[in-house]
């Protein structure tokens, strides 16, 4: 057991922090200005992407690629502390080609894509030339139970015919977004159980019948790249666009979600660290009733609770990343549920405290706090609502205990009857 | 002791509910459409105001007016359950001329205005011809401690010269807004203690030097009437625009806040009832893992907790209203702090649960939930942050116990030493 | 609506407080000393009972008795504030013949007893000559679902034959305890539904086969009067000992629980007030890091939160009492669940804070805090665990909404599709 | 970074678990029986100690001893998972000579004792021949601020004269307890600051003037070895009994507390694991309203929350142990505060949930739950109350931010003014 970062990781952290300080943060005001006008700052982004790639800070997220593919080869445990650094700024991950949902989509294509699919989509994604989105959540059913997903993917000769409605399809209005991976019901095997009826299909976004309805604001926040509501109306793609095997959609989804959730969670840790640091700065700088806010015991309690909660959450995430590296994504399924649950609730808690220390300013877009809070609240749904993760963890715990029933018997002090 | 509404109140509740159902709610979609385009739906509002006034549903909030002034004469305890009904819809109060901050401003003018001030401002406000705003919170200091307020109101001959910056000035961009009541430091008496240095002055909004910087979004929500940042730059008004006495700004603020906070709190209760009702409807209608959400014990717990928390909060608010009616606003000062604290925290709790039951839809503007949550979070600052109210309540409690020290002595079981 | 106590109630409060100060509290040290030796201080109790009865402070709890029965006739709403006063001291209620479980048992006998049963048991109970206990909870099943109760009450000619095991039978080792009312399965009608299979029977405690196994400590606290585990082994009583009708045990239990729960809850309010007062006294008297504890913002927060939570809980309890007086116990069923839930959780919260302010002394029997906490934790089970009450409240809420489905429709802002 | 236990640790875990199953747990009923009679089961304990030592499971806690001293040499990180196993049973640590407060006392003697002191006390302690206690907390002052400690240790020629009162002196009534290490004010240097006025002195418990007043129950729990109130009345010991240097009492206390707190926390983790396992077993075995408790979503939530909270707390404790091993106890001071805070609150939370799943049985001594809860509540004071640790953590956090003020500036989106 060892709780220190390796030298390799420490060096990458240092390099990434320096890049953020030297190049990304100084561009933030401009990014805010342009997106505030409803535009996507492609020139700014492309410039920074070029610089990052030149420094080798590129595709840091993807373990197990062939050596001749672009980017650094890192384990999940090595990537996690870097995701934390990028996470502090909402738009930084794209600079390093490490942004969701493309990272997950690249992993899917890497693991399950045919050579043709890889050539068409994985390579340009790895090069950062295009972006992609992922159509999962649906407005009309409780997606907490993913078997409710009902978009129809019907075989019609050499094609699939896709009909359905998705929302919270992140990235769909990004100017470079060209591909949507969609999850739906194929139902070729009418006897299949509820977890073997779904498949994933690659849909180029210029396919007729695919349309973006709107960029759905999340708690009134309009993401520049969009969390979109999209419609598939008689969308027709060749059967060669099937990703993996028919009926294996859930298996693919699971494969996709493990590392993606670790990334999400580590970005959250970074955001919570930022919120805590801002909270401390504000508390040190404001005076009420003759004292600095930092001298009030309740403010101190919030700071200390945030510190211990963040530290614990980070450790849990890192252990999950380590477990994935050691035993594979499947073995870490429950651990990944745990970190998703913990991280999302952490963000709402810590940012809420920061807002309270800021006073009314914390409600305003002058600070990143509303967006951090917004995102934290939304995270309690993304990749499954809290309740699904709680259920997963509890069922695992109960199943372990069920196999050892009676093990606590000698701890009781029962009177003789 | 009697927990039933009087017949008079029950009849008014019935009448108001009917009016809401018949006239206001059917107009909501249109209101949403127009404000969504960045416009203020004056025609729609004016039409409904006419209908409401014709039915006598007008100025329900203002106790103690002379009989010849327009509107119904109600005690705080009578008005509270009506505010609850109006509160369910963000824009409904204006229809009945019962909206903040005008209600508080009308009370101020009613209590402290000169005959000329009343003629110029109170009458048109009571008639619903103009609207007004209130400049209190400042961006540059911790307004939690109101003695930090630093806008300068300097006597200059027969005029006051006002310089400063305010934000969260609600209503300032409403098309009919004509008056801003501003709080600042007059400092005519350099020996005065920190609570006797501030005054309130009436500033017509067309006075040169007064300008609106922006409508500050609250958690990314842009209120149609605005929570504005405004600047006073060498704003010059005659000394006759002083409201009440120089140096009595805090006393006026206290007088203003009592009933206003009761209104706020009762509107919150209404919003929480709406959120609870929506939560139940959603839980009854959605299925996950083979069961309706309403059959899951954790969802049931949220519903039940919301019910008992709302009921308790309502009783506390009604008791504070009753106390104000019985003993005056000053006697209820700590009780008003208590309801403000309780109501704001209630709203974030109940609405958060509703959002969780809704799933991702609860994050979207398709439901009122984001705005309800936004407003609840902001309420934890409006009229003073939670921490100020907690402090007020604690100090009162401690001062009572201090006077009776030792009263618990006989409850101890101390061993003899 | 009126939140003031009537003159009648205020006078009784004053009288009871004076009696507590003059007679009961001065005897507390002696009561602690005697019970600390494992004895029950009957002489001390009897002396105080005589004094209380002489002042008319007797049987304050029982509404609706005939005028010629001993004691004052009070409504639930009138009794509640008196129960609060008695509740501050664990053993005070007995002085006024207002202690559980006898109050509930007297109500049962009053409502459902035959003239013979009343003569044999109600009269001596009202006179305070004997005490009684109530056998409900069973160790071997989840009593949260009361239909699980399985003690057998089998008809055998003119007798019932009772077999089973109960625990948390309060008062069974009180020196004057002579009667146990036991709940069990009669099952005369094999077709009866789960809620019509149980009955209540009066069992004199000297009946052969009835035995007390032990006084079960609650969180290591041994109540002097006992929360006992008792056994019925072929206990034989005449059929005339049936209380009410066969198969109506649940209906009787419901009738019994309403006022009893109000009493419990008001006693809890009294205990929470005591804990809050002790917390304030301690905070005012202790110094750490150069300040009185009462000057630390976190301690102030605890005090203020306790105040607002107590006030809200009291109002909810009083409203439930009022509702029972106005509409009957049955109409207040859900309200009674709500107060039981709220009061039990309140006590653990407030006392926990008091303990924290006390420091390690709060863990010791030198203060009443451990027993207050113990009792609060146990209350979360007595009269049904929290989860049963949450379920009851949620189902009621859902059933109301189910009848009005769609009522929130116009509050949505759904986009046109 | 590596989250796996080493082979050495895994082997020790296995060995210790086997010993617990084979020898300790089978003796628990007898231990409960004997201590229930108010006696200390020395024969039982001694027999098990002999067996444990024969297997080399002895003095596992003490890092850095000379090779010729008895016991295994383990780092904190290696010992922690073993403390977790012992912690599941309140009395198990003594079997392995790993019990508080002797472990801390042995560390003190090991680090600061003179050769004579070591010969007299450390050797017999390491051999398990005697036990010792530690006099720190005082009843008359707020010990949360340790500078309040006021027991007087006055130089009188070649002796110290000690006067004062301590409580929560653990172990003082253990039959083998022979030594009390007492902390008090020496005040030889009247100019010394508040943290340089205290010293520690070794007091053989048969010294005249030392007496045990009582075994103070903690939340009504009487520990068999005692948490005692003790008096020093003109206790006279030679100056050679001074431990370390005069005025360095706080420095010694800090040295003592680091590893001791890690042990406490890991034992807590073990107790929480036990409570969680019992909760799951109970939930799987009980039926209410037609379902097993384990199928209710709220019970599942408690189980899952307990799991993620325990896992996070364990990681935090292990990291603190690792840090102590890497950088020394002083460097880990704030980390140790963090684990103490987290562990104590964890125990009350997890055990409270277990009690709730158990129903009323969870209140009884038939289960270990009341004692586990009791201990958890008390832990919120032992080694400093929560508030002191929160303060320590916050001040550290603030001091780091203070050195880097402005680092968050570029994350703001401030409008130009």
TrEMBL record, chains A, B, C, D:
<dbReference type="InterPro" id="IPR009100">
    <property type="entry name" value="AcylCoA_DH/oxidase_NM_dom_sf"/>
</dbReference>
<feature type="domain" description="Acyl-CoA dehydrogenase/oxidase C-terminal">
    <location>
        <begin position="247"/>
        <end position="396"/>
    </location>
</feature>
<dbReference type="GO" id="GO:0033539">
    <property type="term" value="P:fatty acid beta-oxidation using acyl-CoA dehydrogenase"/>
</dbReference>
<dbReference type="GO" id="GO:0003995">
    <property type="term" value="F:acyl-CoA dehydrogenase activity"/>
</dbReference>
<comment type="similarity">
    <text>Belongs to the acyl-CoA dehydrogenase family.</text>
</comment>
<keyword id="KW-0285">Flavoprotein</keyword>
<dbReference type="InterPro" id="IPR009075">
    <property type="entry name" value="AcylCo_DH/oxidase_C"/>
</dbReference>
<dbReference type="GO" id="GO:0050660">
    <property type="term" value="F:flavin adenine dinucleotide binding"/>
</dbReference>
<dbReference type="InterPro" id="IPR013786">
    <property type="entry name" value="AcylCoA_DH/ox_N"/>
</dbReference>
<dbReference type="Pfam" id="PF02771">
    <property type="entry name" value="Acyl-CoA_dh_N"/>
</dbReference>
<comment type="subunit">
    <text>Homodimer.</text>
</comment>
<dbReference type="Pfam" id="PF00441">
    <property type="entry name" value="Acyl-CoA_dh_1"/>
</dbReference>
<dbReference type="InterPro" id="IPR006091">
    <property type="entry name" value="Acyl-CoA_Oxase/DH_mid-dom"/>
</dbReference>
<dbReference type="InterPro" id="IPR037069">
    <property type="entry name" value="AcylCoA_DH/ox_N_sf"/>
</dbReference>
<dbReference type="Pfam" id="PF02770">
    <property type="entry name" value="Acyl-CoA_dh_M"/>
</dbReference>
<protein>
    <submittedName>
        <fullName>Acyl-CoA dehydrogenase-like</fullName>
    </submittedName>
</protein>
<dbReference type="InterPro" id="IPR050741">
    <property type="entry name" value="Acyl-CoA_dehydrogenase"/>
</dbReference>
<dbReference type="InterPro" id="IPR046373">
    <property type="entry name" value="Acyl-CoA_Oxase/DH_mid-dom_sf"/>
</dbReference>
<dbReference type="InterPro" id="IPR036250">
    <property type="entry name" value="AcylCo_DH-like_C"/>
</dbReference>
<dbReference type="GO" id="GO:0005737">
    <property type="term" value="C:cytoplasm"/>
</dbReference>
<feature type="domain" description="Acyl-CoA dehydrogenase/oxidase N-terminal">
    <location>
        <begin position="6"/>
        <end position="128"/>
    </location>
</feature>
<keyword id="KW-0274">FAD</keyword>
<feature type="domain" description="Acyl-CoA oxidase/dehydrogenase middle">
    <location>
        <begin position="133"/>
        <end position="235"/>
    </location>
</feature>
<keyword id="KW-0560">Oxidoreductase</keyword>
């Amino acid at each position: 057991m060892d709780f220190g970062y390796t030298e390799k990781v420490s060096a990458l952290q240092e390099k990434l922090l320096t890049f953020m300080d030297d190049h990304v943060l100084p561009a933030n005001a401009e990014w805010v200005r342009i997106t505030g006008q409803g535009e996507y700052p492609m020139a700014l982004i492309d410039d920074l992407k070029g610089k990052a790639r030149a420094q080798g800070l590129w595709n840091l997220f993807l373990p197990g690629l062939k050596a001749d593919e672009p980017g650094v080869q890192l384990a999940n445990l090595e990537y996690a502390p870097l995701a934390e650094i990028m996470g502090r700024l909402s738009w930084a991950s794209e600079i390093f080609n490490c942004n969701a949902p493309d990272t997950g989509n690249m992993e899917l294509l890497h693991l399950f894509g045919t050579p043709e699919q890889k050539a068409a989509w994985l390579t340009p994604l790895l090069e950062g030339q295009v972006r992609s989105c992922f159509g999962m959540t649906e407005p009309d059913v409780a997606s907490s139970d993913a078997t409710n997903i009902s978009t129809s993917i019907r075989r019609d000769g050499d094609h699939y015919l896709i009909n359905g409605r998705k929302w919270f399809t992140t990235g769909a209005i990004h100017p470079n977004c060209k591909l949507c991976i969609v999850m739906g019901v194929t139902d070729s095997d009418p006897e299949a159980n509820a977890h073997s009826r779904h498949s994933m299909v690659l849909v180029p976004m210029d396919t007729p019948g695919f349309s973006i309805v709107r960029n759905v604001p999340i708690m009134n926040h309009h993401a520049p790249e969009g969390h979109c509501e999209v419609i598939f109306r008689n969308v027709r793609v060749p059967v060669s666009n099937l990703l993996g095997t028919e009926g294996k959609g859930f298996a693919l989804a699971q494969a996709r979600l493990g590392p993606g959730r670790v990334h999400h969670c580590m970005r959250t840790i970074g955001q919570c660290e930022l919120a805590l640091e801002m909270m401390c700065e504000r508390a040190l700088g404001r005076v009420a009733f003759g004292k600095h806010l930092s001298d009030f015991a309740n403010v101190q309690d919030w700071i200390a609770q945030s510190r211990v909660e963040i530290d614990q959450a980070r450790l849990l995430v890192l252990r999950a990343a380590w477990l994935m590296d050691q035993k594979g994504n499947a073995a870490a399924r429950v651990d990944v549920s745990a970190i998703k649950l913990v991280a999302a609730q952490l963000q709402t808690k810590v940012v809420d405290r920061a807002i309270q220390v800021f006073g009314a300013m914390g409600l305003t877009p002058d600070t990143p706090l509303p967006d951090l809070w917004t995102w934290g609240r939304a995270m309690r749904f993304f990749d499954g609502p809290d309740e699904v993760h709680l259920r997963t963890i509890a069922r695992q715990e109960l199943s372990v205990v069920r196999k050892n029933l009676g093990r606590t018997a000698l701890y009781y002090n029962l009177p003789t009857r």
